[in-house]
Write a structure and sequence with these properties.
Blueprint: H1 2-11, H2 17-70, H3 78-81, E1 94-96, E2 103-111, E3 122-127, E4 133-137, E5 151-154, E6 158-166, E7 169-172, E8 186-199, E9 202-208, E10 216-220, E11 222-228, E12 233-234, E13 239-249, E14 265-274
Antiparallel strand pairs: 1-2, 2-8, 3-4, 4-7, 5-6, 5-8, 6-7, 8-9, 9-10, 11-13, 12-13, 13-14
């Protein structure tokens, strides 16, 4: 019987301490490799995500500015620009500060529409008891309420200022040299300023309509903008050009990126043809 027990004990083999240590060491090496791979992939994803955000920021900002710069002067703004104080303090279609960091453009950037997108059009033209011209619209609008919102372009052909509004009737300050037809659209003339600013501790590109409400953020992590005034005409002769550069950077610094301070940057520069500016030179 003792012989059978001896045979049974020899058959029930276990794991030795050395084998257990080897298994733990191999598992540790494998886990460390997997963890390192995960960290590298996570970092790569974070970097790619930041680069994508940076590129979207710079493209969105320059696209918005290009669209409005092209329309600078639209609406035949000479009537309102020649008024004392111009359009909310600006008397030129394009004003660029000497350092080239801030640009203000004036134009009929906004076609007046209802909240559902339907255009607000002129139904008829008349005069009030004082002899001032009035525009009766097909719908009421609040776009021209207040002195800082009074600048209007009629059909994009002639500019004027709104002295008062009563429901859907606008009273104009200046005489009409061109009587609009029924169905003519109207545009709000604005002085829009683009500049760098701080928001939440970050450098941002701001857009300010100069109506006292302050600017709002167009894009974050914009490190630099540069504008050059259209000092000369280029081909075709009826157009002027603005040179614009926008530099964006990633939100966070990467210590392993060999780029000075660790920030990745993208710069986009473009020549922008201003369609409506020739008449002002």
């Amino acid at each position: 019987m003792s012989s059978n027990r001896h045979i049974q004990l020899r058959q029930e083999k276990g794991v030795t301490l050395i084998e257990l240590m080897i298994a733990l060491m191999m598992s540790s090496v494998l886990i460390a490799a997997i963890y390192r791979t995960f960290i590298v992939q996570q970092k790569t994803y974070t970097v790619q995500d930041q680069v994508t955000d940076m590129q979207q920021n710079v493209r969105a900002s320059i696209s918005r500015m290009m669209s409005e710069i092209r329309m600078a002067g639209f609406g035949n703004c000479d009537n309102v620009l020649s008024l004392p104080g111009g359009v909310n303090g600006f008397t030129q279609v394009i004003t660029i500060t000497p350092d080239g960091k801030t640009m203000t453009i004036v134009g009929g950037f906004k076609q007046v529409k209802r909240d559902n997108g339907d255009p607000i059009l002129i139904n008829s033209v008349g005069k009030d008891v004082t002899g001032k011209y009035t525009l009766t619209l097909n719908y009421s609008t609040h776009n021209f309420d207040g002195s800082q919102h009074r600048f209007i372009s009629i059909g994009g052909l002639v500019s004027n200022t709104v002295s008062s509004r009563s429901r859907n009737v606008l009273t104009l300050d200046l005489p009409l040299t061109l009587i609009p037809n029924t169905g003519t659209p109207i545009f709000k003339i604005q002085a829009v300023t683009y500049s760098l600013g701080l928001s939440g501790g970050k450098m941002v590109l701001q857009r300010d309509e100069n109506t006292g409400d302050g600017g709002f953020v167009v894009a974050e992590n914009i490190e630099d903008v540069q504008f050059e005034y259209p000092s000369q005409h280029i081909s075709p002769a009826s157009n002027a050009v603005v040179w614009m550069s926008v530099t964006a950077r990633t939100d966070m610094s990467d210590p392993e990126f060999k780029g000075g301070d660790g920030f990745r940057r993208r710069q986009i520069a473009s020549n922008i043809y201003v369609r409506n500016i020739a008449a002002y030179f």
